[in-house]
Amino acid sequence: MDRGQIVELAVKAVREYDEKHRKSRQDRRLRNTRLLLKNYILLQEHCRKAVYDKTDTVENAIDVFDAIEDLDRTTYVLAIKKSVARTQIILTHIEEMMKIYKILCDVSSKPEDQRRYRVAMNTFFQKTDIKAICEQENIDKSTYYRDIRESCEKLSALFFGVDGLLDVQK
């Protein structure tokens, strides 16, 4: 094998690796979008019912951990604070991106875009069952699943910004 063939093989291997990595990143973002939407209400409950909130003092939370021996109480308190704060940031981001998605669907000339928004809202935020959504929208299950897939792809671009948009376009 001469030097040119080796270079060609190396370039091909790098391109294949890059494509595989891009596809993996896209799959991960779509999966994360679906997980965020699917668990939105649960995440809201996490923030709403968390033992720690912004009005709690560290002393109150430490009192709870006093009964637990050999544990680093400060670590637990900080983890709870951080979890609630990060979850709230994510929820606010999802809510804002859903508003943008609604506007995009409302101004679209395609009626299926407006339907896709309704299907996504009913599925992820109203927790309506598939059969009821299909009846309400007068669609079959295959259209329902296509609508969810299309919505998640668009929402992934909104949730993850330019990186998400580039992945969806490819």
* C-alpha Rg (nearest Å): 22 Å
Q: What would the principal axes of the Cα set say about the shape?
A: flat
The assigned structural class equals mainly alpha
Largest sheet: none
| First and last CA, distance | 34 Å
Oligomeric nature of the chains: single chain
SS element count, helices: 7
Number of strands: 0
Strand content: under 5%
**Stretches where pLDDT falls below 50 for ≥5 residues?**
56-70, 166-170
What's the average pLDDT? Answer: 80
Question: From N to C, what is the helix and strand string?
Answer: HHHHHHH
Residues in helices, as a percent range: over 70%
Describe what you observe in this structure.
- The longest helix is centred in the first third of the chain and has 36 residues, at 3-38.
- Among the domains are: 39-93; 108-170.
- 83% of the residues lie in helices and 0% in strands.
- With 170 residues, it is mainly α.
